[in-house]
Amino acid sequence: MKGKRVFLLGAFVFVIAALFAASLIICPVDASAKVYRMKIQSAYPRGDVSMELLEEFAKSADKRSNGQIKISVFADPELVPAEQLFDLVADPGEQNNLFGKGQKAEAELAKELDRLSTEAQKYSRAAEQRSIDGATQERLKALGYVD
To answer: Using CA atoms, how far apart are residues 90 and 106, in angstroms rounded to an integer?
Structure first.
């Protein structure tokens, strides 16, 4: 009687294991089923070399991800107008493009942009003037960042 129970228990465990294995074979869990779609807009028109490079990048991303990353490439201004100016304090949803409307805010925001750009250039020049030690130079060379 004990042997019969052990046999039935073993048979039950075997059947459950076989059903589980069959479910994995019949319905495999496929993580690659998720596809990510992205849009990129170039700052240049179609025919420009940068557009060709972006299109090659999109093809490479598709191939290397086994089709999981799909990138649509658009030229300027296919998705959004090239010239945009928003007052994010007054219009956080970017619904009112101020560019070209001759508003006082346009001039003020353009002036602020110029100021920030000039300030950023100061930091850029400061970075160019810094020197690095020989060991760091050799590490950067080994990584291919500098010649």
So the answer is: 13
